[in-house]
Amino acid sequence: MDGAVDEVGDGPSASFDLMRSAVPWRTFRWYRGQRHYAGTYWSATTQSHVLYESRLELARLLFADFDSSVHGIVAQPFLLRAVVDGRVRKHIPDYFLSTKRGPVVVDVKPRRRLSVPEVVSTLEWTRQAMADRRWHYEVWSEPPTAELENVRFLAGFRRERLFAPDLLEELRGVELDGASIGQVAVCLPQRPEPCVRAAIHHLLWRHELAVDLTDPLRPSSVLRRTA
Predict the structure, then answer these.
(1) Tell me: the pLDDT tens digits for 113-157?
(2) What whole-number distance in Å separates Cα of residue 38 and Cα of residue 57?
(3) Which pLDDT value is given to residue 22?
């Protein structure tokens, strides 16, 4: 790479304060018969909709929204340009995440495409451009199936306004360590079991409770408190 120029401002100090007002660089389009699965996802992190252009991008959004270290998400936030082997190359990363460890730029690529020479080249010079800025860079591919299904399921319980605050407080006062989801769901007999079970899932989404997400969630899954 002969040199890189990005269009997100000068110097490594540019932060999410600059990026959070960004709009997607490309126009997202939906039409009958299109090959890509595009849409919008309502993020509990941003309290707004975030765009995606594929099911794999949607999966990355789910994981970002579930990650308690992430406090900002922007889709297709900027255009990168670089001169590579005498040619001007352009690339739009998929996501910019503002996290506790600093800015993270994410490219989402199916694993089968990671060996395509043009893709390899683009990811390499993009990684170098991010390193020059001292931003973290991540190439994200398909996650483990069970973990994805668990996070996707818990995302259905991400909207805090749907849960009664007094029910959540009751659950926070119950001894849950080592108990299964099924056991805790019936620990408040004055409350409908489906409501208690849903509240447990909400606390899992909020990371107030934890469970082994490498196995499918089931009533026998064992809970533990995170603090």
Answers:
(1) 999 999 999 999 999 999 998 999 999 999 999 999 999 999 999
(2) 9
(3) 62
Instruction: Check residue 144 and report its DSSP letter.
Output: P
Residue type, 98: S
Contact, 204 vs 218, CB < 8 A?
Answer: no
Six token digits for residue 203? 């606390």
Quick check: 24 pLDDT over 80?
Answer: no
Residue 2 pLDDT class (50, 70, 90 cuts): very low
Which region, left, alpha or beta, applies to residue 195 given φ > 0 means left and ψ of -120 to 50 means alpha? alpha
Residue where the block lists tokens 């490309």 = 26
Query: φ and ψ at 126, to 5 degrees?
Result: -65, -45
Tell me how far apart the alpha carbons of residues 91 and 137 are, in angstroms, rounded to a whole number: 14
Nearest C-alpha neighbor of 112 from the set 101, 122, 120, 104: 120
- SS3 assignment, position 15: coil
Helices (H) and strands (E) in the chain, counts: 7, 11
Task: State how far Cα 135 lies from the chain centre.
Answer: 17
Nearest by Cα to 94 from 16, 3, 17, 25:
25
Q: How far apart are CA 196 and CA 223, in angstroms?
A: 14
Tell me the pairing of strands 102-108 and 136-140: parallel
Q: What is the pTM of this model?
A: 0.88
Hey, is 127 helix, strand or coil?
Answer: helix
